[in-house]
Design brief:
Nucleoside Triphosphate Pyrophosphohydrolase, 3-stranded antiparallel beta sheet, 4 helices, globular
């Protein structure tokens, strides 16, 4: 398996260096990330259930796609790359907002990210990469918010934060 590297940043998104991805998560270092929200013409959001083999948040429901830009890769280029790699989709993405969050996990890892939120439109069901996603579903924001209220542990921490910021 190839080692993946993340871009370390400060709170203003100034690059501070690079670090191997798992090491950055072990040390809780702030790094650049992105979350993609794809909607269809029915105003349904494409949700992804994370693969059961993920090193954190396995099996949880989240936004359409999320990952990290590689060194020397823009957020938008990385988002387009990962959307295709994970979900088999290509569409026009627009950066909507960004936020910083920090979530520790039971396995000793910590997500500490400056997370860019990108949005796009697509009416095609994805062709999911089973190494990345277990399943998918389309749901409206009110349906998602109702389910999160009933089953908060079924969703990733960053998705719940981004959803509140957006809607």
């Amino acid at each position: 398996m190839n080692r993946e590297y993340v871009i370390l940043v400060d709170e203003n998104d100034n690059e501070m260096g690079v670090m191997e991805k798992l090491q950055a998560h072990r040390e809780g270092k702030l790094h650049r990330a992105f979350s993609i929200f794809i909607f269809n013409d029915k105003d349904e959001l494409l949700l992804q259930q994370r693969a059961l083999t993920k090193y954190h948040s396995a099996g949880l429901w989240t936004n359409t796609c999320c990952s990290h830009p590689r060194p020397n890769e823009t957020v938008k280029d990385a988002a387009n790359r990962r959307l295709f790699e994970e979900m088999g989709l290509a569409c026009d993405l627009t950066i909507n907002t960004s936020f910083i969050y920090k979530t520790p996990f039971d396995n000793g890892l910590t997500e500490h990210e400056l997370d860019y939120v990108l949005m796009g439109k697509c009416n095609t069901d994805p062709h999911i990469n089973k190494e990345e996603a277990e399943s998918f579903k389309w749901q409206t924001i009110p349906e998602i918010k109702k389910d999160i209220a009933l089953n908060p542990a079924d969703y990733t921490s960053w998705f719940k934060i981004a959803l509140e910021k957006l809607f």
